[in-house]
Records
---
Amino acid sequence: MAINGDKANPTSAAAAPPTVFISTATLRRLLTHASLIRHLHSTLSTNIQSPVRHSHETTPSSSLLLMPSWSLSPSLPYVGVKLVTHHPNNSALNLPGVHASYVLFNSLTGQTLATMDATELTLYRTSCVSALASKFLSRENSETLVMIGAGSLAPHLIRAHLAVRPGLKRVIIWNRTVGKAQSLAEKLQNESGFEGVILESNGSLEGVVGLGDIVSCATNSETPLVKGGELKEGAHLDLVGSFKPSMKECDDEAIKKGRVFIDNEAALVESGELVGAFERGVITRDDIRGDLVELIKGEKNGRKSQEETTVFKSVGSAAVDLLTAQLVYETCIKNQVHG
């Protein structure tokens, strides 16, 4: 805050708002998929520094991840870090395997501005990155979304894709556990935002992949689920789940068949679909058509025809975490809602 036209001084810094805690429930009230998609579209090209994430084994079966990021732009005076714990054996305790918190700082003063639930933040940012890519890569007249996976990301991905493709009339959910897909379809059908949309589940993966104008995958699969030969003409394939080379949600044919885009450079070394395709000589790195920032800036063309197949592979980034936390925090302060 400037005083009498002078630059900020310790008095103005001391007048900064106190640190706020933003709970899961509050974050859900502050964010919508549509608002976050718009925000990422307008800010993702900002100059943001994101070092390689730190990963540390805390026990033989658990780990701690640190994902720092900071902006070099005066219009985005923030530093942030996401702290993630991964305890895969928590399923035996009926607890989530991943827990996360986000801490946001003022980059000018170093003051802590907010702490918030980063588990929910990650669900929003991941789904909205996919939807933003879909805005450039899927057909505008898409009518059917096939959702592969019925975990915590699935409802977010469905809502986010609907936000950019409101013409979607049918959502088909598939999951290895058929009952889980059925329960999610029934749950969402009764929620607001799905008026005029038919939500259903189907136990036959081969039977539904070919129906999707958009096929979105959010699984931990280490064997290909989507076969390129089964994709319909003009389909857009959204790959969200894999984040290490051993994981893959589609086969080589899908990668070879589609014009492939990524969210950021990390996908080239973390995504099992791409790493495997490179190793087998199916495609080379030069065959990757571009990243999300290049699509936003218009430096790379998205969909070129109704008939072509497009593929988007995301692995996540600390830059998107920072921008999402920014929107949450600024909305919180504007509306004076937190806790």
---
Amino acid sequence: MALIGKWWWRFKTKTTSLWVKVISSIYGSSGGLLLDDSFRIDSYKSVWNEILKTGNNFNALGLPFRSFFVKDLGDGEATSFWKDVWIGNEVLKDKFKRLSRFDNDINASVKDRVIWDGAKGAGNWSWAREPFERAKDELEGLTKLISGAVLHPEKKDAWRWALGTNGLFTTKALTDMINSGLLTSSDSNCETLRNKLVPKKVEVFVWRARKLRLPVLVELDKRGIDLHSVRCPLCDEDIETVNNSLILCKHVFAVWSKVFDWWGRGGIPFINVGDLFLDTGRANSYRRKIIWQAVGWVCSYLIWKNRNQKVLTNKSWNVPITLNEIQVKSFEWIAKRCKSQVIDWHNWIYNPQIFI
């Protein structure tokens, strides 16, 4: 989502590029990125159409994606008065809904609608009819708001990314915002779990797995994707569900058996992902519980990663190599984040029970 969202930034800032001119000729000067251009999303089937739909995906997470693009005013000529975020933190069309309907030109620029005398801004209105009732009240609020506008006639308008410290778009900042939106999404049947000893990407994976939102073959088939088979790509003995891909497949179960042997534990106590991610072993303190839970989360994350490599690149499934990767990655992530206890490599490999 973050990488696709970056194309919004590129469209807004690479105005002289040929591809931007092509998109503008099809979708209009705004490229279909403005809220009132949403009708175009269903009118065209193209790669750019999918990029536009990303805005709706951000809305679904409660992230005001469009408001992250802010105009730094110069002369106001390239900034839409009603449709761009240029004063305050939202577009004036949304803040003054009734009043915007009275304007003769909803696409008017800031330069068209604001008179700058060097000290403060004043309205330069062009009404289709004179505002009345509530619209008149909105006009008073708008007039007061734009009196604080500052224009710089000597320079051109420019875009600024609100999440960036230097005003430039960064995929990392947007990714962090997306992860925050994912992990705080509420679901009455699936409480969000957190573990401070694993990276955010592992937490997101756990959230997706518990909600059965991993792209296993059965789920892809439900969505109408034409597949040769929905049987497990590792064992070919059962259909591939989330539970099968992370626990029940005999090749995956063999990995879990090795992990439990490594930690000196008995039989595997779970058969579904709900119990898997809640398992805290026999630990008797919060610190020890989250260490074992983190090991389980890392193990399931790497099992899924290796499953994908098998499906996408036909890489052979190797239990010892997978176990070794789990040992290395779990140590790397957990030891780095565990502030209350020193975790050394030798004990982690040969005597990990002391940590739980």
---
Amino acid sequence: MKLKLKLLLLLLFILNHHVDSGSIVKFLPGFEGPLPFELETGYIGIGEKEEVQSFYYFIKSENNPKEDPLLLWLSGGPGCSSITGLLFENGPLALKSEVYNGSVPSLVSTTYSWTKTANIIFLDQPIGAGFSYSRTPLIDTPTDTGEVKNIHEFLQKWLSKHPQFSSNPFYACGDSYSGMIVPALVQEISKGNYICCTPPINLQVGYILGNPITSIEDQNYQVPFSHGMALISDELYELYPYYLLSYWINDETVRNALHVNKWSIGEWERCTHLRLIPYNKDINNSIPYHMNNSISGYRSLIYSGDHDLTVPYLATQAWIKSLNYSIIHEWRPWMIKDQIAGYTRTYSNKMTFATVKGSGHTAEYKPNETFIMFQRWINGQPL
């Protein structure tokens, strides 16, 4: 009897701590009623012994998940949780802006979610970002190039567990510091697809980057950009609802609903790169990756908020110009209901550059306009 009890307890422990799988989330604290979309959360083990546990949020397309594109979304930092993108930029839920009263912050549905036309994996990376963690102390310091290989492995393993999405067109996407990671990841996937005995990833189309960091030279454009811009008011500067996110996601009921392992991390932080994550930035310039991806024929959408001081659109324009590709469609406004939403230019290397009028460093400032831009580009339409 004692042996049977021990075996039962062991089985329950394994089931409760089996991290290399996903769980469907039907309800979330702060949102009334069942979620109006399909959300899955889980961990994928990385490495030979799978000490690294990468946490993800996966949301199926609300349109046609069997055929719609599969997107991977990486937030910047390095070290910012991908739920930043999910709840502030392009996901189907957002935190309701309100004064915190001690209860679980409220969530509301959005009208601008990219999941209206695409399946999206929001991945917490590198280790230490969001809910991703390591079972054992890391021997080697995480690096840009190391993360590229880890993310590639994550995708291969995720697709092996979700084979129904293996034929969907795949796009690597992200913003800010992801500008150093995504171009290298696209090249890594492209090369990996030609290696024997590894399942190919359907990278037949391209990648998307918002306000991407490309090299240290991006900083050279901050002063010229600032010279031509007025400063926003203190009141507007102090209005970001990120503090609500910390209250919401650190609530025990929320972490239980997301199927987060209780023993994985302590208090969740939106961006941990400043203090807690040792990280070696060994990709100094991502332009060569852009060039190689262009040679391979991949489409790309590069967009910039025209009020971004961190990575001014002038810097992005400059490195795109350095590629020396012919211009297919000259600088022109792109419109939403007879209103100028930004400006755009397309190049012979299948690259589209666009500004988003009035937006800052991430899409959260103009999510509706960014969604319309994304929807047109993903469907092969002119902006």
---
Amino acid sequence: MKVSEQKTKSPAYAGMLLLLFPCLFSPNLFSPLSRSSPSLFSEWNAPKPKHLHLLLNALLSQPPFKRQLDLWSPLPDQGWKPCQHPTLTPYLPKSRGYIQVFLDGGLNQQRMGICDAVAVAKILNATLVIPHFEINPVWQDSSSFAEVFDVDHFINSLGNEISIVTELPSEYAWSTREYYGTGIRETRIKTAPVHASADWYLENVLPILQRYGIAAISPFSHRLAFDNLPINIQRLRCKVNFEALVFVPHIRALGDTLVNRLRDPGDLARQSTGKYAVLHLRFDKDMAAHSACDYGGGRAEKLALAKYRQVIWQGRVMKTQFTNEELRNQGRCPLTPEEIGLMLTALGFSNNTRLYLASHKVYGGEARIAALRKMFPRMEDKRSLASSEERGKVEGKASLLAAVDYHVSVDSDIFISASPGNMHNAMLGHRAYKNRKTIRPNMGLMGQLFLNKTTDWTQFQNAVVAGHKNRQGQFRVRKEKQSIYTYPIPDCMCPTRN
């Protein structure tokens, strides 16, 4: 009997898996995370593989050579290239005042906010103060703009577009985050609508600038429209995102070190193609709780995630009215590490693939990653590739760790994200700008395939390959209201042929 014909519930099937791959069921691997120190969010039932009938086949299969060759081949010229920006320095008119913005969210959300802040300063003919980063309530990171991004490069790159200062002159020294947090202030704009137009800023912010010489906008996330803006404003946003925003030297240096080790992995060099893929595995507790899907951790996990939603979001995010099956059919459940591993194997990634795991914290710990690691034993991350001394300047700082992952991801031969999100969106756009391969998981298809417990490996493999044929970096022209940071054509890129 072929492996793919084994029945899902068969004791012999599970026994074969246990004999061949005992580490998947190691007592240490699936033991409770910390029985000695229970907390509000304790989950005692560590996750085990959910798709055994597919997992065994994935572990035993070897993708056809042609499929691997096609998978790793670079993208051809698709008829678009980054637009050239003027090199001459134009005359900058006299500034109308200073613009401050306070940015929340994680690194990639802040990145988009910076681009929008530059554009708003240009619209208002104002001087931009280097944006202030709020402390993220989930990651608890207090890193500043200057700790993440190269300030000098940022200012110099945009010197012919707008005026930028690192701090306010003494007469405006009172305009601080603390000042705006202690009461209603006439210089703070709290009413900027999501995706506000250029006219909104001219009508509502410009009068404050003209009266006080300064305006502080908070909140500012997603506060500038993607449509009906002058082409020079759109191109400026692209210039900020893809050229002006570079990480500080020590982040770039660590990122380059990781890239070099991934491309030349020491003693294994003879097995290496010099290529590597990045998997962004956003499967943290925040994502798991927000999605309200069932991830196989049993009642304890469901209760813990419900408690997390209640405490962290205080009722703003409630359990969805849809069942787990409905959510998965709609493609609204993040893929688990096991599921993304099965998808990658079906697409043609072999167990010799040099895979870099870009992730903050994986919900469920090492137990949750065990099946993925078994499918891809050469999987690496920041901690396996770099020493504690090399990581010293970024360790414990979520934004800096995310910046390292971003750097490694942009340079990779292939990038895959396990679920949509800000990192997925940012990388989709940045890699399109560089014409590099990015695989977008078909979430609806994958959800349906994983719900069907009768699908054998061959059927699963064929469905995955067919469902991702046109989701590997082919250019997509931006539609109305879509983000230019995710879809840079046609705002950021110009045709190579007229």
